[in-house]
From TrEMBL:
It is a single-pass membrane protein. The gene is ga18522. GO terms for cellular component: plasma membrane; plasmodesma. This is Late embryogenesis abundant protein LEA-2 subgroup domain-containing protein. Residues 81-172 form the Late embryogenesis abundant protein LEA-2 subgroup domain. It comes from Eleusine coracana subsp. coracana.
Amino acid sequence: MGSASRAVSCLCCPCKCLACGLFSCLCSILISLLVVVGVLALIFYLIFRPHMIAATVDSAALAQFDLAPNSALAYNLSVDITVRNPNKRVGLYYDDVESLALFQDQRFGYVQLDSFYQGTEESTKVSPQFHGQQPLQGDVNAANFRSQQTDGKFDVEVKLNARLRVKVWAFKVRGPKARITCPLSVPAPGNNAGATFKPTDCKVWF
Ligand SMILES: *[C@@H]1O[C@H](CO)[C@@H](O)[C@H](O)[C@H]1NC(C)=O
């Protein structure tokens, strides 16, 4: 009897393990466990996965974005992000919410935001405000800064991370970490020459 057919017989007749020893008994328990975990994962997938969170940046504005000769980047960036829970049966708690702002893969801004709850099919507006000063590393980045300044808009990436808890009916289950990434093109401060911010969809990972 091959191990595959033994596995099948274990699965089909768990009582048999009383008769055929410890190995078969362990094998039967293990396989039942795998099946239960598999079914739970499938149920969770069917409930949750088909409807990912959606996030859009509705507006982003730079009141200040200056690179001093000593490479200090002085910034004041406001962003409005709408996060939507499209699920009909699943509520979401967002904990440890943090937002990051990056220029040329260098993080210059960081803010911690309040936790929030999102009922089924609800949207939440999150508005991180970044301001301060941060040294910008590297001559290439300074050169990129100048050329984008000439173009009148800056490529800035804004991220939103949160630890999720999932509410299904009366149950609250620890969920995955959500990572939302929004690649933005933001008009330079004081640029009134027609450069307006276009609403941008974000990518969501778990
Ligand atoms: C940043 O810009 C906003 C919008 O112009 C302004 O209200 C706010 O006072 C500025 N913050 C700082 C620290 O300069």
